[in-house]
């Protein structure tokens, strides 16, 4: 009996790893097939595979299917899967659902204990596009501090100066806008699966960045048979 379960786990792992390898080779249709086989071998419960499928579908422009896949990954992880929430946020941005994107980013950040610079940066971009400049400025400042603690004092000083700028409201808004533009120039590109370029305020195209980092999500415990 134990041997049979080990064989099943091995088959599941083989399909999953083959799917990841095919993704790296750009053979997306074959990769999708292998990932679905892995899920079937696991009785339909394999959040990591659904996460990979979500990224593939997102790359192919099937935003609704990608959202469904990410949500399945989250549900099958008892609601705790920050990387899936982050990718869900990126997909909501591409679907022009900024409010849902902000909520997804906030959840991703919370599930990582507050440390998620990519999510802070991309949420800042969304808030900026929504006209919430002060909140966007705060998110950019957090992203800079988390990525490069050495720049924290400088970023905090600039933020404080922009927030307390005297004069008419329009001048204060201009100061915050200038600070945000500085943040945009200085903020590095997203380091992991979320590609910040996909969430800029000028998002007018549904084309994802060429490199999606589809197989670089942090390792998670493998789903157990029968769970």
What distinguishing features does this structure have?
227 residues, mainly alpha, Serine Threonine Protein Phosphatase 5, Tetratricopeptide repeat, 65% helix, 0% strand, disordered N terminus, disordered C terminus
Describe how the helices and strands are arranged.
Layout: H1 2-24, H2 28-41, H3 47-59, H4 63-75, H5 82-94, H6 98-111, H7 117-129, H8 133-147, H9 152-163, H10 169-186
Helix pairs in contact: 1-2, 2-3, 3-4, 4-5, 5-6, 6-7, 7-8, 8-9, 8-10, 9-10
Summarize the model shown.
This protein has 227 residues and is mostly helical. It is built from ten helices and no strands.
Provide the structure class: mainly alpha
How many domains make up the coordinates? Answer: 2
Please report the number of helical segments.
10
CATH architecture of the largest domain: Alpha Horseshoe
Report the major sheet: none
Order of helices and strands: HHHHHHHHHH
